[in-house]
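Quick one, C-alpha cells below. Sequence please?
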C-alpha cells in the first residue's frame, strides 16, 4: 500500500536519511527501530507530508504522493509529544479533528464513540483531559488519531513518556488495536522489546540508513551486523576467523569454537563475529574437551527470578553475560561449556563495524 522509494534528506548539508526504501502492506505493522537521532521522526514527517524529501518518492497504492499536502493524504500521525487541548474534555479532543473535516454531526458522534470504545475510554468521555493520568491521556491521543479513520497510521514513540507498568499495559492494548485493524501502521520506537511485541516486520535504522529488515524472529536470530546484534541486546560478541567449514570452526582469542552453520556462505580465513547467546552456557563435566569453552572469573551475579545472570571476565579482558540456573559466586574461576547450537555467526561485509 505504502511504498517509500529511495528517500534521502539532509539538514544543513548533514545527511539524516540516506536512500530509504521499504513498503508497508495492508494490515501490516512495520516498526522503525533505532537509537535516538537515527532519523525515525524525520522519516515519519516525510511520509506524513510535513517535510519534503531531497530525493526519492512516497507512493500510495502505486501513485506518487510526494507532493500531495498532508491533509489530502489522510494519514494519521501521533506525535512523540502529543498535545491534547487542555481546556477541552476527552470527547471534544477526539471530535476536534472530525469537526475540522466538516463531517455531519451524527457521523462525528459515531466515530468519537467508536474511537473511545477502542481505547477503552468511553466512561471518561466528559472528563477534562487535565484530570487524566499519563496513560489515559495517551489513550485520548490515540483515539484522536484513530477517529478520522486514517488510511495509514503512524505512531512516533507512543509509549515514550510512560512508566513501565503503564507502558506494558498500553503496549498490549496497542497490539490488539493494530492486530484487529486492516489499517497499515508504522510504529516508531527505540525499544527493542516494544518493537518485537508490535511488529510484523522490523526495520533497523542507524544513522539514517536501513541496516536490516525482517520479522522480529529473523533479525534476532540472524543479526546482519555486530551493531544490530548489540542494539538488540545480544552483547556477548566475540571476533574470530574461520578455520574450517561444515561444521563451521572459528578460532578466537578465547579458544576454538565449533558451530553447526552460518546463515551466509563463508570461506576459510574469513573474519566473523560470534554471538554467544545468553542461554548458551553450562557447567561442563570434569574434563571438557574440543572447544566451545570459556574460562574466566565471575565478576557479577544478579538474581533474575527464574535464573541468575552471571557475568564472566576472561583472561583476555572481555566480559560475557549468561543466564544460568545456578548461582556462581563472585570471584570464582569457572570453565563454561557453550552449546554450539546457541552460538550465532555474523560474517563481516566490506567496511562493517567490527568490535
Ligand atoms: P529520531 O526520531 O530517530 O530520534 P530525528 O529524525 O528526530 O531522529 O532526527 C535525526 C537527526 O536530524 C538528528 O540529528 C536531529 O538533530 C536532526 N534534525 C531533525 N530535525 C531537524 C531540523 N528541522 N533541522 C535540523 N536538524 C534536524
Ligand atoms: Mg524521534
Amino acid at each position: 500500500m505504502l511504498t517509500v522509494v529511495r528517500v534521502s534528506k539532509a539538514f544543513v548539508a548533514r545527511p539524516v536519511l540516506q536512500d530509504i526504501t521499504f513498503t508497508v502492506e495492508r494490515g501490516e505493522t512495520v516498526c522503525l527501530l533505532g537509537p535516538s537521532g537515527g532519523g525515525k521522526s524525520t522519516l515519519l514527517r516525510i511520509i506524513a507530508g510535513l517535510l519534503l524529501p531531497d530525493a526519492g518518492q512516497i507512493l500510495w497504492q502505486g501513485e506518487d504522493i510526494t507532493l500531495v499536502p498532508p491533509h489530502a493524504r489522510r494519514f494519521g500521525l501521533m506525535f512523540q509529544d502529543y498535545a491534547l487541548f487542555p481546556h477541552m474534555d476527552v470527547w471534544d479532543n477526539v471530535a476536534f479533528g472530525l469537526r475540522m473535516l466538516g463531517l455531519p454531526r451524527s457521523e462525528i458522534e459515531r466515530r468519537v464513540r467508536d474511537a473511545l470504545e477502542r481505547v477503552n475510554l468511553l466512561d471518561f468521555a466528559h472528563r477534562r483531559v487535565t484530570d487524566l493520568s499519563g496513560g489515559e491521556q495517551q489513550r485520548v491521543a490515540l483515539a484522536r488519531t484513530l477517529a478520522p479513520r486514517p488510511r495509514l497510521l503512524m505512531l512516533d514513540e507512543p509509549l515514550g513518556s510512560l512508566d513501565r507498568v503503564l507502558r506494558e499495559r498500553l503496549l498490549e492494548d496497542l497490539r490488539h488495536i493494530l492486530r484487529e485493524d486492516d489499517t497499515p501502521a508504522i510504529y516508531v520506537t527505540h525499544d527493542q522489546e516494544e518493537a518485537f511485541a508490535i511488529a510484523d516486520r522490523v526495520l533497523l535504522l542507524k544513522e539514517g540508513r536501513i541496516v536490516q529488515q525482517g520479522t522480529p524472529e529473523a533479525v534476532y536470530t540472524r543479526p546482519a551486523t555486530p551493531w544490530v546484534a548489540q542494539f538488540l541486546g545480544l552483547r556477548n560478541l566475540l571476533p574470530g576467523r574461520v578455520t574450517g567449514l561444515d561444521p563451521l570452526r572459528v578460532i578466537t582469542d578465547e579458544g576454538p569454537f565449533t558451530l553447526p552453520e552460518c546463515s551466509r556462505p563463508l570461506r576459510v580465513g574469513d573474519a566473523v563475529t560470534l554471538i554467544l547467546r545468553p542461554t548458551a552456557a553450562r557447567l561442563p563435566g570434569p574434563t571438557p574437551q574440543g572447544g566451545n569453552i570459556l574460562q574466566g572469573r565471575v565478576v557479577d551475579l544478579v538474581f533474575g527470578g527464574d535464573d541468575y545472570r552471571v557475568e564472566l571476565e576472561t583472561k583476555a579482558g572481555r566480559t560475557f553475560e549468561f543466564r544460568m540456573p545456578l548461582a556462581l559466586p563472585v570471584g570464582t574461576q569457572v570453565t563454561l561449556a557453550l552449546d554450539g547450537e546457541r552460538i550465532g555467526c555474523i560474517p563481516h561485509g566490506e567496511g562493517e563495524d567490527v568490535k
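The pocket of adenosine-5'-diphosphate (ligand 1) is lined by residues 11, 16, 34, 36-42 (CB under 6 Å). Residues 47 and 58 are 7 Å apart (CA to CA).
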